[in-house]
Design a protein that fits this description.
Mean pLDDT: 94
Order of helices and strands: EHEEEEHEHHEHEEEHEEEEEEEHEEEEE
CATH topology of the largest domain: Purple Acid Phosphatase, chain A, domain 2
Low-confidence stretches: 1-16
Number of helices: 7
Shape: globular
Largest sheet: 6 strands, mixed
Distance between the termini: 35 Å
Strand content: 25-35%
Strand order of the largest sheet: 8-7-2-1-21-22
Number of strands: 22
Number of domains: 2
Structural class: alpha/beta
CATH class of the largest domain: Alpha Beta
CATH architecture of the largest domain: 4-Layer Sandwich
């Protein structure tokens, strides 16, 4: 996975810039509404590089039960939704997709059969997740046909390895999977991408211990001699950089619950020490991270600017960051929301 690979043919920009404008967002978790906003953001913010960080797949499959030939119901976010027309059904499906969930229409008999068949449910979930991912790639490829920039899409810790392979196998001239190797995002700026995280209480698909993360990161950056204009697109933030603050969880409960003291949630740095070590060692120009949705902001580690745009995908809000970079310099940055 981590072998060297050259970027696909570069597009020639229609505009001349004395800087590279990156638009970065992450952790869309299957939300179709948020992804559509992201694809359109390149034009809105006059970016010449689009980067979508990890955790692109959703977390939940919602069954839509067909009660009669024309009526259906589904329970979404704890609320039962009854529909009785094709238009209402379409609106329900759109709402589920915008929340980042997947759906499957089925009769009540099928639903009862699947309740205790975890393997079959998992198969449906993967099929639906793959369909949406490939649809996103198609949509982005069509929208970017006449644009002077590309979209770089990676996986995160919540994305199974098949997700990374699916992006790789279906990438186009306009939609590129950069994970595990270096790509040029401008004439002088290169980017290395890494989607794994340190262990979490949720036992997500792509977690590794810090020693293993250190080994994998060293493999990703191997061969790079000058980090002056290198971007680290690493899903997990560096530990204790203020962009990795999350509630301390009591893992003795199922599910884990936040620890509260004096009426306040206890916040701790849950980022990766291996990522922190790599940033301190190599001092890249820029680190793009996510993973911790509530820790939106910008920090400095030595010369390195670290950006976590945060995430509110469940509300359909696209949190992003515009970063203008020059030769050896982060010129400016601006957090966005919409």
């Amino acid at each position: 996975m981590f072998g060297k690979k050259k970027d696909k043919g570069e597009k020639k920009s229609k505009h001349k810039y004395d800087y590279t404008r990156v638009f970065f967002a992450t952790d869309v978790h299957g939300s179709s509404r948020t992804f559509r906003k992201f694809v359109n953001a390149g034009s809105i913010y006059s970016a010449n590089t689009l980067i979508l960080g990890g955790d692109v797949t959703g977390k939940l499959l919602v069954p839509i039960i067909q009660d009669t030939a024309t009526t259906y119901h589904a329970t979404v976010s704890g609320v039962r939704r009854d529909v009785s027309s094709e238009e209402e059904l379409k609106n329900l499906q759109t709402m589920i997709a915008d929340l980042g969930f997947y759906h499957e229409i089925m009769k009540i008999e099928t639903y009862q059969e699947l309740k205790d068949d975890c393997d079959s449910v998992e198969d449906i979930f993967k099929r639906k997740a793959r369909e949406r991912l490939l649809d996103w790639i198609r949509i982005a490829d069509e929208k970017l046909q006449d644009k002077p920039y590309k979209l770089y899409m990676t996986g995160g810790n919540d994305d199974d390895q098949w997700v990374v392979h699916a992006i790789e196998e279906n990438q186009t001239e306009n939609v590129i999977n950069p994970e595990g190797h270096a790509v040029m995002v401008s004439d002088i700026h290169s980017m290395v991408s890494f989607g794994y995280s340190n262990p979490t209480p949720w036992d997500t698909p792509r977690e590794e211990g810090e020693d293993k993360l250190h080994e994998l990161i060293e493999g990703v950056v191997e061969g790079i001699e000058d980090f002056t204009n290198v971007i680290f697109n690493f899903h997990a933030p560096p530990k204790d950089c203020t962009l990795d603050l999350a509630p301390l969880l009591d893992t003795s409960t199922d599910p884990p619950t936040p620890v509260v003291r004096a009426g306040q949630s206890v916040m701790v740095g849950v980022g990766s020490s291996a990522v922190r070590e790599a940033v301190e060692k190599y001092q890249p120009l820029l680190v793009l991270c996510g993973h911790i949705h509530e820790s939106r902001g910008v920090a400095k580690i030595g010369r390195t600017t670290v950006v976590n745009p945060g995430s509110e995908y469940g509300e359909g809000i696209l949190r992003g960051a515009i970063i203008n970079i020059q030769d050896g310099n982060v010129l400016s940055y601006q957090m966005t929301s919409g």
